[in-house]
Structure formats: structure tokens, C-alpha cells
Amino acid sequence: MTLKPRPAPDLTHSRDPAVSFDSVGLRYGRGPEILSDLSFDLPSGSFHFLTGPSGAGKSSLLRLIYRARQPSRGLISLFGRDTALMPRDALPGLRRRIGVVFQDFRLLEHLSVFDNVALPLRVAGQPRTSYADDVADLLAWVGLGDRMHAHPASLSGGEQQRAAIARAVISRPELLIADEPTGNVDPAMARRLLRLLVELNRLGATVLIATHDITLVRSLAAPVLELADGRLVSQPRAA
Amino acid sequence: MSTPDKPRRPAALLPPDHARDRPLFAVAAILVFLASLAGFGAAGAWQAAEGWTAQLSSELTVQLIAEDARDADADALDAAAQIARLPGVLSATARSRADAEALLRPWLGGAGLPDDLPVPRLIAVRVDPDAPPAPGAIEALLRDNPYEVVVDDHARWEAAVQRTAGAVRYFALGLVAILALAAAAVIAFAARASLAARWDVAEALHLVGAPDRYVTGIFQRRFFFLGLKAGLAGAGLAALAGYGLAHGAGAAGAVFFLPVPALGWSAAAIAPGAALASALIAAGAARLAVTGELKARWP
Q: How high is the ipTM of this complex?
């Protein structure tokens, strides 16, 4: 499958990294810091893996990127803008530039697979006729063409994961972050989904994949951020 | 590639929640029913006060004190004739002793009054309410006559009626306001509960870039229509009840001298107005509740 040219973000003019962390720390409430002194950049158009053992803080780091949390200290910039200085009403615009694949999928149970995948486009106000074919094509490509009317509760874990990935990429986000995107699918489907993410990256999107899957990491010559106990123990190396 | 069986219509983002909506519908309908009844009460008091005041200010009663040595009926006719010629007077009608006795009968019983009992004669005077005779004009007119008159312009009754009707009116309006506040509070609480129950929807929308107003709008529309339906049900029932009450009170009023609620066209506007107000209050309360919750969860 080839992703069709769609919102076409112009990334060529941007010298700013898509994501920049500077001495970032995060704690929940008055608890201990679960992320400490994180400093790294994800250049626009790059492809990175984020690895580390369970509890290392991978999901928390992703939450900081899609701004579900604010850092306790430090500076986070997305597309060159300091997220702490961003007014609240600018967040929807920011989030439309980011596609997120959640570990727990977060599909809406009362919507069909088709409507779940189309959700970002529907929220963006696009007419249904403009995206119906694209959604159907993408669902066919991820192997859910015959399940588009089904509801998430009737899907297997792997099918839900594919639907979640389709929802994250359907609007051609400039930044895609994925939390264990291949955790529930067989190796063949994992390779297929990875190809989709690589294709998105080839079109200019910045991609960050959090995963335990060493086979997946080794399948691409992409830089790796390695977390352990909330700290980066391995800085990105060039691809 | 085109897939022929793509869904044609998108599903509702906020699914119906009958288990939660039914009790809320009932509570909102009852509140609208009570508020509409209070509204009918306020409108009835308003119109009744207008009617009573208009009646009182367009009529005077002249009481002619009967004296043994004089023919009181003849004096009453003479006084009425003089009063009728006064500017601002539309008519003056002398009431006979028989009329006066009839008025006294409810208090003194059916037995005839002694002939030598001096029963005052009454003269009913209708005046132009826009240009009534000057105060004291009737007394001045009849001052030189050989009989004594007392003029009652109903001013003290008019003030009392105004005060009573005003109190009833403001009490009813206060009741409407309290019930509207109660409805808003109940619906705000329900909207928060609804948001908590369907937080997954709000979160999913939020994370794919929906602004607060988009998320809020979904809940607002839901509660607007719920409020409208509850309002129509409550106000419709109240209209039936009000109609029945007005007719029942009309019959009772004829027997017991009770004021009859006068439900005119302005009162007829209360039912649809209450339904619309219910919808707007529901939508507004849901909007405030959901907006506050979104800001609290995602500062």
C-alpha cells in the first residue's frame, strides 16, 4: 500500500526538531521522579525506537510528547514550540499533527472499526465522502477490510491493534508515536505494520516507536533511545 | 480501491444511555411541570390583579345616609341624577332599599328588616378610568343638599388588591426561578455523571485533536434534546392541569367568592416557553459542567 498524499505538512522548511527534551523530569503528585534528566532531540523526519524494560518510563515519556502530562521540570518543545507556553486552545491543533498508537488501543466500543479509524478526519471536519475510500483502503491494507462494520469488542487483540494503528496514521500526522504497536500481532503482520510506519516516515513524518520487541528494533537501522529507571542510558545514534 | 459497503452514515459519537436518561427525564419533567404551574400562578395573579384594579378604579360607590324624616329613595334618585351630569361620570344608578336589603341578606338572613331601620341607599357610579372626576368633586356637588352622602372611591381596596396580587406574583416568579435553578443543578450533575461514564469518548476525541467546544457540543446537544423532551412533557401536563384548575376554580369562585385564575394568551405562551427554557437550561448546564470538567482534567 502507498499512503496517498493528504494534508501534506511542509516539513522541508523546518530546521526545528519535531521533539526536543531538555533536562526533563516527571513525577506524579509528590511521588519520586519516574523520569529524570531526559535530554534528546528527534529531528523532523527521523525514525527512532524507544526501548527499555517494563516500568522504565516509556509510556510516561510518550504521554509527555502528546501532552497528556506536563513535565515536573525541564523544557519540552514540539515542532519548535515550547509546550509549557502553548495556550490551551492551541493544543487541538498540536494534537492533530500527532498520531498516537496506544498500548491499550483506546478504540470506542460503540463505534464500528470504520468510524473509529475515521475519527481524526471526522473531528477535523472533513466531509465523509472525502475520506471514506481512504479509510476503506487503509483498513483493507491492515487486513481489516472485511471487519470494517465490526465493533471493537468483537475483534481480537491483534485486530484491535491494527485498527488503532490505522486510526493513528489515517490523517498523515507529522509525528507518529506508538506504544508497543506490534505487541499483539503475528510476525508477518508486525512486518507489514512496520512497513506502514516506514512509509509514513518516508513521506516526512517523524516516527517514535516504543517497543520491547528486539527483533523489530533490529529489523531497521534506526536510532534507539534506551530508558532504564526513568533515565536515558543510550543516546540516539545516527542511523 | 473503492469498497462498496462502506458505512454511509457515521454513528453518533455519544451513544444513547437510556438507563441514565430515563430518571433524569422524569426529574426534569417534574421540575418543568411545577415551574409551569408556578408560571401559570404568576400569570393568573398578574391578570387577575389587572382586572380587579381596572374594575375598582372605574367604579365609585356613593352611600346616602337615610334619615327618618326624608324619603331616602327619592333623595338617592336626585343625587344620582346630579352625579350623572358631572364630567368624568359615565353613569350613576341609584339602588333602592330592596337592593340594599338584598346585599345585606347574606349577613342578616332572609327575614325582612324592620321598616323603621334606616338602611343607607347606594348609588353605583361608573367613571371614565382615564379621566375620572376630581377627588372631592361629588362631595362638593352634593354639599348643599339636605341629605348626607359618603363617597367610597375604593382606593384602600385597590391598594390592598395591588399588594396581594404583587405578593402572589413575585412569590410565583421566585418559585419559577428556584425550580429553574434546581433543574439546572440536577442536569449539571447528570451531565458530569454522563461525562464520567463516557470519559473514553471525551478522551479519544481530545487525543485526536478535538477542541473542547467539539467535545462540549456533543454533550450539550444531547442534554438540549433531553431537556426539550422533558420540558414538552412537563409543560404539556402543566397546561392540562392549569386548564382543569382554571375551570374548577371558576366553579368554586362562583360559590365561595374566590378569585378565578385568568389564563389568557400570555399564559398560553408559558408551556412552549417552559419547554424551550428547559432545553436551554439543560444545554447550558451541561456545557458549563463539561467545560469545567475538561479544564480540570486537562489543565
A: 0.82
